[in-house]
Design brief:
This protein is an alpha+beta fold and about 260 residues long. The chain is about 20% helix and about 35% strand. It has a 4-stranded antiparallel beta sheet, with no helix packed on it. A 4-stranded antiparallel beta sheet has the order 7-8-11-10, with no helix packed on it. The protein has a 3-stranded antiparallel beta sheet with strand order 9-12-13, with no helix packed on it. It is elongated and about 115 Å long.
Amino acid sequence: EGGHAVLGVDVKVELVQPTEGEGTFLATNAQRYDPARPKHTAGDVQTPRNAMLTQLLAQMGKDGLSMTSNGITLYDDGVHQDGAKNDGLYANTFTDTHKEGTYTFQYRANGTTQSGDTFRRMETRCNYVGVNVDAASSPTSIQTLSPLDGLKRIEFFITLKDVKGEYLGPFRTSLVSFEVSGGTPVENVIDHQNGSYSQVIAYTSGQSVTVVPVINGERFPPMGTGQIDDGKKTDVIHILVLLILILILILVIFIYRCVCLRK
């Protein structure tokens, strides 16, 4: 007021926050989704992600993803990251943001000015929190496919999650790519709509293949490196193992005969 701090104000924030993330909801209920169903609502064409969300919510009888309310008090006491005590800056911190979605903060300030007039102020702010995918929390796997056109094929999978286990979810192929060396990517990244993405790689026998996932511009550790098994290597290993077993058997027989002869 007039350039001076107004003290003793009651400042509170009413918060509405998600209790289930959109990506996690879609990924964990993907088996219910029928992509063949129409993607129109009231004449509007929905994005694939919104169409999946709308369909699943309707199937489960839900109006929307689960939300909860919370209350936060802001302080001017110098110990809530509000600067100096009694400087007119009211603040607090909120860290429970591990669910994807929109967090709505409604600020309410009630107080009395130095001239004795009461006042009320209200303002609403919305913040969207996404999923910060973590490499160590995102499991990977590899699947060997049948050869095609004289080339061997292998498929690399990654399920994208954050440190809290929240899924990035489907329809995020724009954020997912794979750097490949030693082989050739086959077509585009595959979205399995259950939170996992994959890339098929074609290669010739004996090639050394390296695949690095790149998520939202961040390079993750290689999913798999080294020489891909071409069958011949496996045969050689099997033969070596068999020879070792035969040598062990011969040694056991020799020892047994020596013991018997001494008796």
